[in-house]
Amino acid sequence: MTNTDTDLIMLEQLSKQISDLIHNNSFENIKIIDEQRKLIISNFKNNNPTKNLTRSRVIALIHKNDQLISNTQDKLIKLQKDKNKFEKRLETYSANI
User: Fold this and answer.
1) Which of 1, 49, 65, 68 could make an SS bond with 15 (beta carbons 3.0 to 4.6 A apart)?
2) What per-residue confidence (pLDDT) applies to 1?
3) Does the predicted model carry a pTM greater than 0.85?
């Protein structure tokens, strides 16, 4: 496995970790992991990989990461709305007892 492949795997793993942390409402470690992810992306940009396949894989991973973060944020918003509805319903029922 080449260094580029290792970096791509690491980039994907870091992106998944960020997504999982967001999903679990554990925001304190995201900045550290995101810095590692940005460093790998920066290395790709600075090394100017000549293979179009590698470049397209990196771009695809970046887009996939953005989609994962967006989906996770949407799920978080939906969960918060559902929780608020449940709390209001519970409050209403409790007031009527």
Assistant:
1) 65
2) 53
3) no
Q: Are 41 and 62 in contact (CB under 8 A)?
A: yes
Domain residue spans of the chain: 3-69
Length of the chain: 97
Which ranges of the chain have pLDDT less than 50? none
What is the predicted pLDDT for the residue at 85?
A: 92
> How would you write the chain as a 3-class SS string?
CCHHHHHHHHHHHHHHHHHHHHHCCCCCCHHHHHHHHHHHHHHHHHHCCCCHHHHHHHHHHHHHHHHHHHHHHHHHHHHHHHHHHHHHHHHHHHHCC
